[in-house]
Amino acid sequence: MDNQTNLKPMHCLSRENHISAITIIIVNKETLLTIGDREGNLEIVSLENFRTVWRKELDSSLIAVKTIKEQSCLITHTRSSVVQYWEINKTGLIETKRFQYDYGRLCGLEVTESLIIVPTAEKGKVRILDYGFSEVKTLNVGTESGEIMTIKTIASDTCLIGFETKVIRYNFKLELTESEVLLNDCVMCLCPNKKFNKVICGTAENLSVFNSDEISGKLENKVVIPTNTGISCIDIRQDSKIVACGCWNGRVRVYSAKTLKFLAFLDFHRKTVTGVIFVDAQSTIWRKNLLIVACENGTVSVWDIYN
């Protein structure tokens, strides 16, 4: 892979509305791309022929779409604070559960192996729900660092929470902050690299990378990598070799996941990248490791950047 701009996507989808969330779901051994937009449209696209399989109109803008792999179902989170379960079958998208709560901010929910984490309307607090939407507990994770910007799980009982000024490692089973890292600018996204025990943090100005000790729970040795633009989303390939960072300027910056050496940038989109996600080679007919990039201008590009 060279670091020039002559890399081109293998396929591109174009939609009318701002794309706000993407994820991958496997149903009956077929890999499907889920696209959510700011107008409340939820679309399922086949990665075999890139055609729309199902479409659904929700009540408001999508801010998060998650997958429960064991059940092959989707969880959607809208701007109007509605969380819904969706079962996918031959007849389409079937809503099976719904939960309404008083939130209204922009941080999307996060899903663990058995729980759902949602920020509350009350600053610095999150609600822990089970998959049936029964409340397990409400936790005060801190108010002194501003709004909660992003939540990312790293274990069944532990998550990373990004605030405006810092990242904390929070154990919601023990109800305590295990560690924290202060930052100079606002946290936008988080991505744990479990293979190398690191956390990659995208901010409004750069990438910050720090170690995450699984025994002590400490976050330490922060390294700042300048990017000259804000980072909106991050994903690590399944083999933990490369990491893709979507940027405010429309580019995707690609790094070595182990050394964080800059490898390439993908210069295709012209608006903020709103989602990057890797697809394992064994899960599509292409038998290639694909990178899917979503942009706020309604475009989705599919890349094969590894040959």
Automatic annotation (TrEMBL):
PANTHER family: GUANINE NUCLEOTIDE-BINDING PROTEIN SUBUNIT BETA-LIKE PROTEIN 1, TRANSDUCIN BETA-LIKE 3. Pfam families: WD40 (PF00400). SMART domains: WD40 (SM00320). SUPFAM superfamilies: WD40 repeat-like. It comes from Artemia franciscana. Keywords: Repeat, WD repeat. This is Uncharacterized protein. It comes from the Eukaryota.
